[in-house]
Design a protein that fits this description.
By secondary structure, the protein is α+β, with helices and mostly antiparallel strands. The chain has 35 helices and 26 strands. The protein has 6 domains: 115 residues, 2-Layer Sandwich (Beta-Lactamase), CATH 3.30.450; 115 residues, Beta-Lactamase (2-Layer Sandwich), CATH 3.30.450.20; 123 residues, PAS domain (Beta-Lactamase, 2-Layer Sandwich), CATH 3.30.450; 114 residues, PAS domain (Beta-Lactamase, 2-Layer Sandwich); 146 residues, Alpha-Beta Plaits (2-Layer Sandwich), CATH 3.30.70.270; 171 residues, Hypothetical protein af1432, CATH 1.10.3210. 44% of the residues lie in helices and 22% in strands. The strands form 6 sheets. Strands 2-1-5-4-3 form a 5-stranded antiparallel beta sheet. A 5-stranded antiparallel beta sheet has the order 7-6-10-9-8, with helices on both faces. Strand 18 and strand 19 form a beta hairpin. Helix 22 runs antiparallel to helix 30 and helix 26 packs across helix 32.
């Protein structure tokens, strides 16, 4: 084919063609073009004919420039001088066309322009501009010179530039300086019709930051069509992940903790495994070491070649039964921490402690495990070596009841506290060491303790040394609020930093302290009433003889009938009388008064600064309160005596003697009356136990009087005998009502109770003035002439006549009373019974006298009661 053929193709081509010469100045700078040859298609694009171009210069044809925003002479002229080639897109303002231009230099100083009308493509792009702008990917169309022809809204969204600013710029204006060269190389590849994928460069955003964009681009009709996504965040995340991975690898490789990873040949579904034992054996024999760090190799004294690829059974040299237990626990729980003894490659023992975790795939199957372990061998061996020496000290510190502590005097904190403090104060050592100083001290002891410690430190500074030791007592407040006493023993020493610390031992002495206080309290207190006792009174009374206490009135009082009450009602009632008296005295006490129990039934009161009239008014009030005190079935009766001291004396003994004498004189008058009241109370109490007791007492009293009268007893003796008959069963006051009213026979224990009533009656009556003979008669009223009676077993001549009379009267009424025997006897039968036992149980004369009494006396059933006088007439 000849040249004409090619010229014809060029002339007929729909693509514009121009051959131009570059015109330069003296400095070889392009100043214009001269058109040497153009085809019709080229002239058409510029709205001219072909002849209009030949021999003409650009400035002649286009005085205002070919396009308004592109310097054709400089840009294209440079191609003719450098021999480069370039593609670009321009808009022809005059013809309103978009053209794609390819410029290259066939020979120095000359340029070939190949031009294509792309107006149709640009219009088509604009038709789809809605979709173009909706996509979240950065889309653009650029020419080979880098000018941005089109860009979607995502550029504004991602980089922040107004779209108009982008369309008037070149991509190289935004590319990071370090990425320009690689971007230019990418554009060159595009010029060679290559498709670009996954190219990344950095673009300057409106806010000054650089965004990384990942490109896909291709060329069509001289234009570059590009799509990019902003991967800035992804790269940052990848970079962070890589940084973390690098850090993990560094940690894995450089840490002193032994690390390794084992992976299974095939995943194992442990959770759903039916035969766990078989599955475990598979894991142990098919799980292999795939990675390990140097620390683990050092632990086992092994090389990587000796470890990598080894199974669990091959790698771990230890008790496999224990290993199986540990593995099973690991597979069940997913993670374990345990300590084990293994063997190194050289056979020496290795103690390790570590954390081990299963590795799972997305289906929850076990694919391997990861382990981190520490070499504990030296520590274990050291622990064994230290254990013997530390055992004794540990036992002493941790199991002693005493608390061992160390206190930093500068920081005012405890630096050590032995575990026994939990039992001692209720705080753990950790709690107490973080609490402020004084938390565990009694509030009232904080300031004295601080002062004491300061004084000790001054002494220590003057004379430092371990020989100095201080001890003191202090109160502590436990965590639950209770207060305890402690003995503290302290030594001081200088630490390595020059500060002073106290090393102390504290011991709970609360029990000892309370015992001391209790002993002191008991030594001065009456145990029954809680009042001061005689010892306190005698040791402290002299302090009240001073002028500041004058006038001083001393009151001595004595509980009336205490012995009688004890005998009749028991010592518990007697104690209640004493307590009742003490309560009355305490309630009347003024702040400076002293109330003490100085004897069994004797009390003393000291009224400082109280005259005799004032004291008497107070005594009257006390007596009024006493008269209202009822204890059980008896009332409280107290005799008082008082004396007043007006001037200081060496001893209060005379004052006490005077008050006591007055009290005893009054007691002679008041006590007898009280005892008679008690007797009346007892009789009423006995009668309340049943109607039979009332009738029986009256009948025995009546018959005894009539028998005595018939036997010729004197009038005075008859009065006493009648009273004795009335009181003969007074000792039954202490017997259960059920026993007294029992119809059937009594058991041995109940009968023993009944047999004691003569003695009880004797004890009750003998303490009452003028009742001495009556008491003796009542004591013997169950004695028998044959000596088989009770309680003393007296024989005939030893038994008082009055007792014999009461015995017969008592027996007769018991036999004939409807409440005495289950089936009472008629009078003849009862008399016959008495006569049967004459000489054994009953006195013959007394029985004969009873038999001789008028029948109406024996039949008499209702007897009027007579009160008890102050006592029978006394006989010489």
């Amino acid at each position: 084919m000849d040249e004409a053929f090619y010229r014809r193709i060029i002339a007929e081509s729909s693509y514009g063609y121009a051959y131009i010469k570059v015109l330069t100045d003296a400095q070889e700078v392009p100043v214009d073009f001269e058109f040497v040859e153009v085809n019709a298609a080229f002239a058409y694009l510029f709205s001219l004919d072909s002849d209009s171009f030949l021999g003409k210069r650009t400035r002649d044809l286009f005085p205002e420039g070919i396009t308004s925003d592109f310097n054709w002479i400089t840009t294209v002229g440079r191609i003719g001088l450098t021999g480069r080639r370039q593609n670009f897109v321009q808009h022809l303002d005059k013809s309103d066309r978009w053209i794609s231009v390819r410029a290259f230099c066939p020979e120095p100083g000359f340029i070939v322009l190949q031009v294509v009308d792309i107006s149709h493509e640009i219009k088509r792009l604009r038709i789809h501009e809605g979709i173009f702008n909706l996509t979240p990917i950065l889309l653009c169309v650029i020419d080979f010179d880098g000018k941005i022809i089109m860009a979607n809204d995502e550029w504004t969204t991602s980089l922040g530039y107004p779209k108009q600013a982008l369309l008037s710029a070149h991509i190289y204006d935004y590319i990071h300086p370090n990425d320009i060269e690689s971007t230019a190389a990418m554009m060159k590849e595009l010029g060679e019709d290559r498709v670009i994928r996954n190219f990344v460069n950095r673009y300057l955003a409106f806010d000054g930051s650089y965004h990384s964009l990942e490109w896909r681009a291709h060329v069509s009709d001289g234009l570059v069509y590009g799509a990019a996504r902003d991967i800035t965040d992804k790269l940052a995340a990848d970079k962070q992940k890589q940084r973390e991975l690098d850090l993990m690898n560094l940690l894995f490789d450089q840490t002193l903790t032994g690390m390794y990873m084992m992976m299974l040949d095939e995943p194992v579904d442990w959770r759903h495994s039916v035969d766990k034992d078989a599955t475990l054996e598979y894991i142990l024999s098919h799980q292999r070491v795939v990675r390990t760090n140097q620390a683990l190799l050092d632990q086992y004294r092994a090389t990587k070649d000796q470890v990598i690829g080894k199974t669990s059974l091959e790698f771990f040299k230890t008790d496999m039964d224990e290993i199986r237990k540990a593995w099973r626990k690991l597979l069940d729980q997913g993670r374990i921490n345990f300590e084990t003894q293994e063997r190194r490659m050289d056979g020496t023992p290795l103690w390790t402690v570590g954390d081990y975790s299963c590795i799972y795939d997305s289906k929850g199957r076990v694919v391997g495990h990861f382990g981190m372990q520490l070499d504990m061998t030296e520590r274990k061996e050291g622990a064994v070596a230290l254990e013997k020496s530390e055992r004794m000290y540990r036992l002493m510190a941790e199991h002693a009841s005493d608390v061992i502590w160390v206190f930093d005097m500068m920081n005012k904190t405890f630096s050590y506290m032995s575990p026994s403090v939990k039992q001692f104060l209720g705080y753990s050592p950790e709690e107490l060491m973080t609490l402020p100083f004084g938390t565990s001290l009694h509030p009232a002891d904080i300031a004295p303790t601080v002062h004491r410690l300061r004084r000790m430190i001054l002494e220590f500074k003057r004379n430092p040394g371990p020989q100095n030791k201080w001890t003191f007592q202090v109160r502590h407040r436990k965590a639950d609020g209770t207060i305890i006493w402690a003995d503290a023993s302290i030594n001081f020493r200088y630490t390595e930093t020059g500060s002073i610390e106290a090393i102390g031992v504290s011991r709970d002495v609360t029990s000892r302290k309370l015992n001391e206080e209790k002993i002191l309290h008991l030594s001065y207190r009456d145990q029954l009433t809680g009042l001061f006792n005689r010892r306190y009174f005698e040791e402290h009374q002299r302090t009240y003889a001073e002028p500041a206490s004058l006038p001083l009135t001393m009151v001595v009082c004595d509980v009336n009938g205490l012995k009688l009450t004890n005998d009749v009602f028991g010592h518990q009632v007697g104690d209640q009388l004493l307590k009742s008296c003490a309560n009355v005295l305490v309630q009347s006490k003024q702040p400076d008064d002293v109330v003490a129990r100085i004897g069994g039934d004797e009390f003393v009161l000291l009224f400082p600064n109280t005259s005799q009239p004032e004291a008497q008014a107070r005594i009257d009030a006390i007596m009024q309160a006493v008269s209202q005190q009822i204890v059980g079935k008896t009332r409280l009766s107290v005799s008082f005596g008082s004396a007043t001291l007006a001037a200081p004396v060496a001893s209060l003994e005379p004052l006490f003697k005077e008050a006591e004498d007055i009290m005893y004189r009054r007691k002679l008058l008041e006590s007898s009356s009280y005892k008679h009241d008690v007797i009346k109370l007892l009789i009423n109490g006995l009668h309340e136990k049943g109607l039979y007791e009332r009738k029986h007492s009256n009948k025995v009293s009546f018959l005894s009087y009539e028998i005595g009268k018939a036997m010729g007893l004197a009038s005075g003796d008859l009065d006493e005998l009648r009273l004795a008959g009335m009181l003969h069963d007074i000792g039954k006051i202490g017997i259960d009502t059920d026993v007294l009213n029992r119809v059937g026979p009594l058991d041995a224990h109940e009968w023993e109770q009944m047999r004691r009533h003569p003695e009880m009656g004797f004890q009750i009556l003998r303490s009452v003035q003028n009742f001495g003979r009556i008491a003796d008669w009542i004591l013997a009223h169950h004695e028998q002439p044959d000596g088989k009676g009770y309680p003393q077993g007296l024989v005939d001549s030893e038994i008082p006549l009055q007792s014999k009379i009461i015995a017969v009267a008592n027996a007769f009424d018991s036999m004939t009373s409807s409440s005495g025997f289950k089936h009472p006897l008629e009078i003849p039968g009862a008399l016959e019974e008495l006569q049967t036992y004459i000489g054994t149980q009953f006195d013959p004369k007394v029985v004969e006298t009873l038999v001789s009494l008028p029948r109406e006396y024996l039949e008499k059933d209702t007897i009027s009661e007579e009160g008890i006088s102050d006592g029978p007439t006394s006989h010489a």
